[in-house]
């Protein structure tokens, strides 16, 4: 599994895929990514420190992801990230967090000591689909609630059961309320959730212009950031 890459096209940054404790929620119906975790602190520290040793600081920005939220990374890893930030003169950090940690974001900002772009896996702003189909366990009702805490939502498109109108609305919201975001075209995995091939064809045609939008990163495969398997 690749755990380090340098992203150069949009928002240039180094990105590392680390290992943390099991996702605190871990019940999203579409996700089989959460198996990349551990409860062995020594194992996690050994792996994470190796990956973090590859960070050069050449982009001035670093994104750290794991199969859950940044708050599930071991303390030793968080301290090492802070050390790398200082040693490599990192000026901006990207982290991801579940909605359940929304009241702890400022705590992490103060700990790291540099500006953090906090991502959140919204998946969709359609509350019924998000909760009843995807089982996301994110209780917000409006985009404004999300924007109060988070900087960059990740939405997921082209899932069977979604409609073109739902996707149009999600992208409209993304552009209206947030200065950046990520759109993931759902890729079939080991879960029962399935990709809608017709929606993919429609999306690729209608939203091709997003490839030139500097504020939106579109992932056509879940490894498009150059990490994962």
Q: Strand portion, in percent? A: 15-25%
CATH topology (fold) name: TIM Barrel
Q: Which regions contain 5 or more consecutive residues with pLDDT less than 50?
A: none
The biggest beta sheet reads: 8 strands, mixed
| General shape | globular
Distance between the termini: 5 Å
Which architecture per CATH?
Alpha-Beta Barrel
Rg is 17 Å
CATH superfamily: Aldolase class I
Strand order of the largest sheet: 1-2-3-4-5-6-7-8
Helix and strand string, N-terminal first? EEHEHEHEHHEHEHE
Q: Provide a count of the helices.
A: 7
Q: Share of helix among residues?
A: 25-40%
Structural class: alpha/beta
- Number of E-type strands: 8
Mean pLDDT: 96
Q: Kindly provide the name of the CATH class.
A: Alpha Beta
How many domain units?
Answer: 1
GO molecular function: catalytic activity; iron-sulfur cluster binding
Domain Elp3/MiaA/NifB-like radical SAM core: 13-221
InterPro entries: Elp3/MiaA/NifB-like_rSAM
Protein name: Elp3/MiaA/NifB-like radical SAM core domain-containing protein
């Amino acid at each position: 599994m690749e755990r380090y890459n340098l992203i150069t096209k949009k928002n240039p940054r180094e990105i590392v895929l680390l290992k943390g404790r099991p996702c605190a929620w871990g019940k999203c119906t579409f996700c089989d990514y959460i198996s990349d975790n551990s409860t062995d602190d020594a194992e996690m520290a050994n792996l994470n420190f190796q990956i973090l040793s590859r960070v050069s600081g050449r982009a001035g920005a670093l994104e750290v992801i794991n199969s859950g939220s940044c708050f599930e990374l071991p303390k030793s890893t968080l301290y090492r990230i802070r050390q790398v930030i200082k040693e490599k003169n990192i000026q901006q950090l990207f982290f991801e967090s579940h909605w359940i940690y929304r009241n702890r974001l400022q705590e992490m900002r103060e700990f790291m000591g540099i500006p953090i772009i906090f991502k959140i896996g919204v998946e969709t702003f359609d509350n019924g689909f998000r909760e009843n189909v995807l089982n996301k366990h994110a209780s917000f009702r409006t985009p404004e609630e999300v924007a109060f805490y988070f900087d960059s939502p990740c939405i997921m498109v082209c899932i069977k059961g979604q409609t073109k109108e739902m996707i149009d609305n999600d992208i409209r919201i993304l552009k209206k309320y947030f200065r950046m975001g990520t759109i993931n075209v759902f890729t079939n995995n080991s879960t029962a959730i399935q990709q809608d091939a017709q929606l993919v064809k429609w999306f690729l045609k209608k939203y091709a212009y997003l490839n030139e939008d500097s504020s939106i990163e579109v992932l056509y495969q879940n490894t498009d950031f150059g990490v994962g398997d």
